[in-house]
Amino acid sequence: MNNLYNQSDVNGIIERLEKLTPNAERKWGKMNIAQMLAHLNAFLETALNINFQERMFIGIILGRFFKGRYVSKKQFSKNSPTGKNYIFTGEKDFEKEKNKALSLIKMFYENGPEQCTKQPHPFFGNLTPNEWAIAQWKHFDHHLRQFDS
Questions:
Q1: Which of 51, 53, 81, 82 is geometrically suited to a Cys-Cys bond with 122, CB 3.0 to 4.6 A?
Q2: Which residues does 31 contact at the CB level (< 8 Å), separation at least 6?
Q3: What is the pLDDT of residues 89-104, one digit of tens each?
Q4: Which residue, 5, 43, 18, 2, is CA-closest to 94?
């Protein structure tokens, strides 16, 4: 399964990110491209243990029932709910967020599973490093498809 601990999968995501332009139009959702990159960066920072997010109450109750689908081969659904700490509505600098995404992806890969967060996912709860890597790849793939990349 694709994941951000696999070099060829990392290279594929990086190639797709590098093709993005600031005027790319979304196919669904509300975020513009710079906001989407900030959203991806915030979630990757959670996996890197740079920004800790508290468990959501609803996630404590329901997260375990949806975790299997989250880390499966099935693509993420369009317009799925987003945790409030991962929503960006203000203006973001496209180049800054794109460069940050490229840097964070490389850091995640180079750090490897040993340095992945041990903190639970805010909704799904405890994830293994491999599950974090799968979720990160799926998340990037989902939003890159959102902007036709």
A1: 53
A2: 39, 88
A3: 899 999 999 999 999 9
A4: 18
